[in-house]
Amino acid sequence: MNGMSSRLCGIRGATTVEANESEAILRETVRLMKELVAANGLQKDNVVSVIFTSTPDLTAEFPAKACREMGWVETALLGAVEVDAPHGIPRCIRVLVHAYLEEGQKPKHVYLNDAVNLRPDLVQGRISC
After folding, report:
1. Who's near 4: CB < 8 A, 6+ residues apart?
2. Domain limits for position 115
3. Whole-model pTM?
4. What is the CA angle 89-94-56, rounded to 5?
5. Is 1 domain-assigned?
6. Mind listing the pLDDT tens digit of every residue in the chain (129 residues)?
7. Hey, how many other C-beta atoms are within 10 angstroms of the C-beta on 106?
8. Which among 72, 69, 71, 59 is positioned nearest to 25, based on CA atoms?
9. In a domain, 124, yes or no
10. Alpha-carbon span 85 to 93, nearest angstrom
């Protein structure tokens, strides 16, 4: 990290997909991860692990597969099923990235599509696509 001191941070994000289809899950997961990487200036070497959760209605693909296809072959990845709460957002993928950021750098969390409703306080000025 350029010789600067760093600290381990948790960076959160989420997105939704239109349908329970492998292509849609992979596409939106790649989009989410690319935005998280860009927003935080992440490099694969600074990422310790990534935890994905998906709602029970997403069964067509593992979101972690998208990271593997992006070249994250040595990063620890884990997938789990989100709680099926009655007030939850359907077809939602959440992510928690554990990464080293430069001291003083604040994590920038990314919420896309209908997932902006999870944390509107963190997406001020973001446009949902």
Report:
1. 102, 103
2. 6-119
3. 0.88
4. 55
5. no
6. 455 688 999 999 999 999 999 999 999 999 999 999 999 999 989 999 999 999 999 999 999 999 999 999 999 999 999 999 999 899 999 999 999 999 889 999 999 998 988 877 766 444 332
7. 9
8. 59
9. no
10. 14
